[in-house]
Specification:
Elements lengths: L1 E4 L14 H10 L3 H15 L8 H10 L2 E5 L11 H7 L4 E6 L2 E6 L2 E4 L10 E5 L2
Parallel strand pairs: 1-5
Antiparallel strand pairs: 2-6, 3-4, 3-6, 4-5
Helix pairs in contact: 1-2
Length: 131
């Protein structure tokens, strides 16, 4: 449980590509980077926009078509958003794609996967894979 280094893009040896959406989806779909990229390309063509630049409205539509539901996280005055680490601890079962500030990550059965430890970053919302 906790953080697990995850880098499915074998060409990004220095972890400097901005492909966090593809990496997160690789983990939840259990597919290679190329297989996942090929799933996403038709949506990029449809909207004429790279997935990394899509507004949340389009992300929600794409992710819904891919079998996810979106759950937003309210940030009412006086409350704190949960962190990735806290979310992973509370969600020991299931597969999730997390929306952070300018970043996406994934959680699978209580562990969070990324090229860096984003455990202290706050969640803005998440996508839960429908059963």
């Amino acid at each position: 449980m906790g953080y697990t280094y995850f880098q499915p893009n074998h060409l990004d040896t220095k972890d400097e590509y901005g492909d966090c959406v593809i990496r997160a989806l690789c983990n939840v779909f259990d597919k290679t980077w190329i297989e996942t990229f090929n799933i996403i390309v038709p949506y990029e063509i449809k909207y004429q926009c790279p997935i990394s630049c899509m507004p949340l409205k389009l992300y929600k539509e794409v992710m819904s078509e891919l079998g996810f539901e979106y759950i937003g996280i309210s940030n009412k005055k006086g409350t704190k958003r949960p962190t990735v680490k806290e979310f992973a601890k509370k969600n020991k079962d299931g597969v999730y794609v997390l929306s952070l500030a300018n970043h996406w990550s994934s959680v699978r059965d209580g562990s969070y996967y990324d090229t860096w430890d984003c455990g202290d970053k706050c969640l803005y919302g998440y996508f839960k894979l429908r059963s």
